[in-house]
Amino acid sequence: MTPLVVRPRPQADALAARLRAAGHAPLVHPLLELRPGDDLASLSHHLQHAQIAIVVSRHAVLFARDFLLQTGQTWPNIEYFAVGEASAETLREAGLTGTFPVDPRSEGLLALPGLQAVAGKRVVILRGNGGRELIADTLRERGADVTCLSVYHRHYPHQDGELLCRQWQQAGLDSLLVTSGELLDALLAATPVEYREWLLRLPLFVPSPRIAEQAAQAGFLDITTARGADHDALLAALELRKKQ
């Protein structure tokens, strides 16, 4: 298959390499760039005073890890939670153990036993700029003292949508791998009206029911929900579709 990979580098290149090794011919065009966040300078201070740290994406782990390494600091010995398996695996690569839910959504995270009795505890949420407030709001309702840190910043470069769609069609694009709601919005925003029907008919692979619902509301007709956003999950979903 010839899927479009729109996640930011270097993850886009790593996913594409994995797909090529399995016999696919991905097209890589990141719609998002990630840059260091405004709150990195206070990261160590907040971690040292917290009992719980929550990472909402693997990018949050990577930017936090790189900053701590560059400044000669270490991760404290506290409880770590991750929204999904991909971010938990990135924690493991950093030498940490993170608890994660089977349901890779904020709702799944908030259902974990370890996040029920949090009254009086200091919780740090590592994330990008913006995003959903459900985790922070719910934990505050449960009595936690919550601090959200923007450890990376999302930047969406301008796209020449007409040129891109022509190139994608000429290259035989036949499927889409979209790993977040923000990337789905960016893809739709970059697609001119005259190419929208073509795009909406392409098989779309997403990592969670929430994004699948968002895609359905946007008009996508062929949506597959993978078991997560990690490379193995996306490849498995693509392989299953290839056999059908």
UniProtKB/TrEMBL annotation:
Q: Top enzyme class of this protein?
A: lyase
SUPFAM superfamilies in the record: HemD-like
> Which Gene3D superfamilies did the record assign?
3.40.50.10090
Q: Where is the signal peptide?
A: none
Pfam families referenced in this protein's UniProt entry, alphabetically: HEM4
Q: Which GO terms fall under molecular function for this chain's record?
A: uroporphyrinogen-III synthase activity
Q: Which residues form the Tetrapyrrole biosynthesis uroporphyrinogen III synthase domain?
A: 13-235
Q: What is its EC number?
A: 4.2.1.75
Give the protein's recorded name: Uroporphyrinogen-III synthase
Originating species: Aeromonas diversa CDC 2478-85
